[in-house]
Amino acid sequence: MSPFFLMSLLFGLIFGQTASLCAPSEYTIHVEKRECAYCLAINTTICAGFCMTRDSNGKKLLLKSALSQNVCTYKEMLYRTALIPGCPHHTIPYYSYPVAVSCKCGKCNTDYSDCVRERVRTNYCTKPQKLCNL
């Protein structure tokens, strides 16, 4: 192998790792139920960041395996449950939410991820707010 090829390969490996900035990030979820008196602000972690993507102009000429549309997604996650305060006895006052433990660049799995970015953000409270730090 030529030195130029080896240097190009090494540069590609190093750049590919540093360019993928996908990691757990702090995020606040606002949760409320119509029957409950309060809105709960939950501090958690989600996967967010940049992942290297290859998208060729010659899509019709290439195999699908040659194209790569990676997103920052969960590698490992767990679920926690919070109690929404001010709920009447006939209402289930619990809310379960994901916590990102580690992240990876990969295909978006619609079983547990929203793969489309929303245009309108509705992550706010309409009722008095309580903070939940778990």
Automatic annotation (TrEMBL):
Record's GO cellular component terms: cytoplasm; extracellular space
GO molecular function: hormone activity
Keywords: Disulfide bond, Glycoprotein, Hormone, Secreted, Signal
Taxonomy, superkingdom: Eukaryota
Signal peptide start-end: 1-20
Subcellular location: Secreted
Domain Glycoprotein hormone subunit beta as annotated: residue spans: 21-125
A Gene Ontology biological process term: G protein-coupled receptor signaling pathway
Main location: secreted
Assembly mode: Heterodimer of a common alpha chain and a unique beta chain which confers biological specificity to thyrotropin, lutropin, follitropin and gonadotropin.
Family: Belongs to the glycoprotein hormones subunit beta family.
Full protein name: Thyrotropin subunit beta
Originating organism: Oxylabes madagascariensis
